[in-house]
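Researcher: We're reviewing a set of sequences before deciding which ones to prioritize for further study. For each one, I'd like a predicted 3D structure that I can look through quickly. This is Phosphatidylinositol 3,4,5-trisphosphate 3-phosphatase TPTE2-like. If possible, include the structure in token form so it fits the rest of the review sheet.
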Amino acid sequence: MEEKEHGKEGEDLKEEEVEKEPEQKEVEIKEKLKEIQFSVESRIPSVLVPLPNNDTLESTPAPDCQSKKDFFHTKPFFFGSKFPSERRKINFFWTEATQYLTTINEYFGSFRSITLRNKVYPSQDEDTVRDFTGKLENLDEEEELAKRSSISGTIQLVVLSLPVRYERLQTKNARRMFSIFLLLLHVVLLTVALINTPTGSRLPFHFRALFLAFCTFFLLDVMAQAFVEGLKSYFSSVINIIDLFGILLVLTLDILYINFYIEGTSHLPRLTFILKGIRLFVLIRVFKLARGKRKFEKAIRKMVSENKRRYKKDGFDLDLTYVTDNVIAMSFPSSGRESFYRNPIKEVVKFLDLKHRDHYKIYNLCSEKTYNPSFFHNRVERFPIDDHNVPSIIDMLKFVDSVFEWMEQDSENVIVVHCLGGKGRTGTMICIWLIASEQFETAKESLEYFGKRRTDLTSGTKYQGVETPSQSRYVEYFALIKNKYNWTVPQKRMLQIRAIIIYSIQGVGRGDGSDLKISVIANKRQVFSCKFSSSKNCQVFCHENVDSITVKFSDCPNIYGDVKIKFFSSSAIPKLYDKCSFFFWFNTAFIDNNRLYLSRNELDNPHKQKTWNIYRENFAVELLF
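Model: Here's the predicted structure for Phosphatidylinositol 3,4,5-trisphosphate 3-phosphatase TPTE2-like, in token form for your review sheet.
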């Protein structure tokens, strides 16, 4: 009997060992995959050097080497009968596959780190060192930022700008005003000629020839405008069609009047006088309507862009700012109805082709919309980021690497970075470039500088820099990667959220957390969620004496990399950014002491002053891992 029980217990233990074996193997593999960085001495990622067994990223690499090939074979997949059920087998396989791909991604991230480190700190045998820093002072005179450094470049700029300026002349107020002036002069001269010519007599020849020249000029002017705007576009307007027919009719009558004497033709000048008077009236009305429309468009664009610094020179009025002499921030280049209140994409193309022809590259950070890259000669690269959110650590390094590569090609090259409004996501990426190119050392300095450059204090006092706490936090992460960790990408750190503490919760919704719901997003997918009012996978403990709640989680999976925490409320809490009550981003590699404490000003949405009637001064969130 005892033997049977002993045998049964042995079988139970064996089954437990089989069930736990994948987890044990995963632990063993994690031990093998301790933090890895590239050798500082190696300029190519051919040798990987494991760090000593500690939690810091600043340790000196050990001399033992591990090949790149071995690195990719240290994390095998698991198959076979070790899984008690197909469902668990599939789930575990998905987890292992995700971690395997993440390891590969981190490998290329580390490769990119060595590349960036070599670009900032080139080897001693290089003859020349490329200076990526732009001019940071005296930037209010934007027209000087586009000047060429050589005489040939200046001549090329002038020559290439002539067609653009002529096209602008054909489509702006100057052309209409000049046409109105000539037509008014034409009518005045015709009036004088009719007064001084006896009734029934023909006008003197010099008057006839002059009027014919006027009509010929008007016809050529219309033809030139139709050529510049395109026949289809120009003749889509009924007014333009009527204008052309009027000019052709007057021109035909003038030709008949000059070359043929037919009884009754002496009255033709009076008929043309009426026609020219009608055309003059139409032109003046079109000019006033067009001018009013442009004023209205400018007012709308100004209202949308608020007090962001705009470029208002050389006939342009664009939501566009020179952050340095080779870095431009702007709002989304739009077409169609949206161009009515944002930067018209054709105007942006004209500006860039005039100021930086063949020397600019666009970085589009919008995830919600895009445009045809052929507008900008296919020099467009996308780094999609959701509005009011952050780029991943890997995307930040990819962006910096791409900018380095572009800037290295020519000393006159510039980058143009935009999201939708040209402020949050744009400022985040520009600030990390300012740090990468060593124009600033700290995140605080770069963020303050971008805010000053993007804000026009003459139009308002609203801050137009990076204001979302998570975006500022990621700029700080990048500064740590470059300055503290010497361009080493922090290795993946697996963490599990054990509990969340919310301080000063009274006044937030029901004041006890029962109306809140949390969502944990890692690697761009939701991995955990729970309602605080339910005890299914979390327990809520209220501490009324200290005005806080503690939420303990159960079954929350391990998370790593870029993580987003979102809080929703069923109460009437304002939903500002991201359609939730409040949220924040962090990266697990930068968590110290298994704890993350974020004050009100470090949380997205509560940081805004208009929510402080709900989120009091001591409101904060703390994560315990």
